[in-house]
Amino acid sequence: MARLDFAIDSIDPRDASEIVSLCLKQLDKHPHDNNTREQLAKVYFTRYGKPDLAWEEMNKLFNCPFQQPRDITRWLYLMADWHLKKDNPDGARACLEQIISRFPDMPYCEEAHDRLTRIKDL
Fold first, then answer.
1. Confidence of residue 2 (pLDDT cuts 50, 70, 90)
2. With contact defined as beta carbons under 8 Å apart, do 81 and 92 qualify?
3. Which residue, 45, 48, 27, 28, is CA-closest to 36?
4. What is residue 7's predicted lDDT score, i.e. its pLDDT?
5. Can you give the pLDDT at residue 91?
6. What does the pLDDT look like over 29-74, one tens digit per residue?
7. Is 114 exposed, middle or buried (0-12, 13-18, 19+ CB in 10 A)?
8. From CA 46, how far away is CA 106, in angstroms rounded?
9. What beta strand segments (E) does 1-122 contain?
10. What is the per-residue pLDDT for 75?
């Protein structure tokens, strides 16, 4: 419900600092707005050059209770991709291994295994 009046995308053409400001204002009002927090993390990583702030926002998402497995998995895949962009295959492996250990009986596990195999080939 918090997002019905607010929607922003990390690829919004506006200046990154403006998007960060809008996201922070939204999160000040609605701290559990997962979509805004995810977009903020993406902006921090891809456009603002602040991966440490991106990790911080992602950790806030993980620490929120009652997150859905599909969301946690999507965030872990995103973080794995970020680790690879930063030439950190060990970090990417750790993200994928979390998916495997957290959701061993779900379809996410198989895809994580496949991606892990491809990373091991690097």
1. very low
2. yes
3. 27
4. 82
5. 95
6. 999 999 999 999 999 999 999 999 999 999 999 999 999 999 999 9
7. exposed
8. 30
9. none
10. 97
- Alpha-carbon distances, residue 8 vs 55, 61, 64 (angstroms): 19, 17, 21
DSSP state of 47: T
87 is written with which tokens?
């030439």
pTM of the model: 0.88
How many residues appear in the chain? 122
Rg for the chain (alpha carbons), in Å? 15
38-77 per-residue burial string, b: 16 or more CB within 10 A, e: under 16: bbbbbbbbebbebbebbbebbebbeeeeeeeeeebbebbb
Sign of CA dihedral 109, 112, 114, 117: negative
